[in-house]
Design a protein that fits this description.
This protein has about 170 residues and is mainly α. The protein has eight helices and no strands. The longest helix has about 30 residues.
Length: about 170
């Protein structure tokens, strides 16, 4: 049970469905409620699929590139450090804004469930790194099943947060 809670809390904080809400709201502002629900459901299902694949195959990918889990943890820590430092020091720069063409393309897109919602908003590099890292802590089949259950729980929470964001 400890692995279930640890995985859920680690993944939920990295997946951050509250951070995906503004993108979801912007891209689905003119959609029907049924279409918004469908996009949220598909994005959550894609998230489970992506994280489960990396949970089981991530160690093989790391081995293929000659990396160890410690390398991944160090790189992830550096990324989080840089993101936090950027939040503290970034000033508004005109070149850093998203162009109007990119925003318009996202609004015109019919199916936003895979990109940008599932990948990279919900299951981005941080969530994938946590998923791979949890595989190294799963020493039994029960722990693996509990980790997959935690991924599914995060997907349900993300789905309900996205669906209720329009209210």
């Amino acid at each position: 049970m400890e692995i279930l809670l640890a995985t859920f809390s680690a993944l939920f904080s990295v997946v951050n469905p509250f951070g995906a809400m503004p993108v979801f709201l912007t891209l689905t502002q003119d959609d029907t409620p049924q279409h918004r629900n469908l996009m949220a459901k598909r994005a959550s299902m894609y998230m489970v699929l992506i994280l489960a694949i990396f949970f089981f195959a991530g160690q093989y990918v790391l081995n293929f590139f000659g990396l160890r889990i410690h390398d991944l943890r160090i790189a992830g820590g550096i990324m989080i450090l840089k993101a936090g430092f950027d939040l503290l020091t970034t000033k508004s720069e005109p070149g850093k804004k998203v162009s109007k063409e990119v925003v318009e393309e996202g609004i015109q897109k019919e199916d936003i469930s895979f990109t940008p919602l599932a990948m990279p908003m919900l299951s981005g590099p941080g969530a994938i790194a946590v998923s791979i890292g949890m595989f190294t802590k799963s020493l039994s089949y029960l722990n693996m099943v509990l980790t997959i259950v935690a991924i599914i729980m995060v997907a349900f929470a993300s789905y309900f947060i996205l669906v209720s964001s329009h209210r």
